[in-house]
Amino acid sequence: MRTPSLLPFTLAAVLCGGIASLAAPEEPGVKLTQRPDRVLVEIGGKPFTEYCFSNVPKPFCYPIHGPGGVGLTRDWPMRETPGEERDHPHHRGLWFTHGDVNGVDFWSETAKAGKVVHDGFLEVTSGRDTGVLRARNKWIAPDGRLICTDEQTLRFHADAAEGRRLDFEITLHAGAEPLVFGDTKEGTMAIRVAETMRLTAVKPPGASKAPPGAGHILLATGARDNETWGKRSPWCDYSGPVGGQTVGIAIFEHPANPRFPTWWHVRDYGLFAANPFGQHDFEKLSDKEAGKRVVPAGGQVTFRYRFYFHAGDAAQAKVAERFEEYRASAAVAPR
Questions:
Q1: Residue 29 CB contacts under 8 Å (≥ 6 apart), including other chains
Q2: pTM for the whole thing?
Q3: How many domains does the chain have?
Q4: Does residue 250 belong to any structural domain of this protein?
């Protein structure tokens, strides 16, 4: 009996393999697309944020889309949206600056303020699980002096079941002179939350004061709402309604950060910031240099944070548990 030829089956297999190899590659879970003035970040094919770096007072991420695609940051001053207050024009999305660096204010955006100027990308990489953006910046005084430089690394993680995560790391480098971070509440690792998330609502026209809002603030210590300003804690959560659902933002501080746990410059009107330098303001000390930090000439200092953008309030999102996971991973990760 003649054995059937295997050639047709082999040929079919080769053809099928060839067709499969020609298929479009799978889209990364986190996609970074560089534009002339910004880097677009998509997670699972949906917008997450944009890293804005050109012709701006400092690099920042805006907007931030949380679970379900809702916007978690105030639009103004990047975009006009009815019903938003026009206070603090320097509160742009998510950013890192400080109000006193070698005597220069990098927090504000006045004529006397310094600017953080983009100096190039070291990496812009998409990935199945994580996208990475690494950038250099120069901190320039109003008179043109170079105060310091930094390297920022933003790691955007693919959607987890509980929410979206952004790891922010910044290393600041002193030049020929020491780098001095002054003691002021005006700083530092910050985000301006959506107006409907605020602890106090937007003040109606003609009203003498703002009515209570639907938002809430919580520290790891158990302090809540107005009790949280100027207190120390390894994490802080700000939650409230956006688009008919409750959402929140938690900031986790890396245990290796200088002065861990940090003080929180978190306001009822929507400013949400970790500030390791504002001790005399927060603790109402007579020593106005209590929180000052000096980096020696040629030295450097690094700060790391995780932003956890979640559905529900802090309890529903298990923020305390997510922080302990972050703390455990930080203990074994290289630094």
A1: 43, 44, 127, 128, 129, 158, 159
A2: 0.91
A3: 1
A4: yes
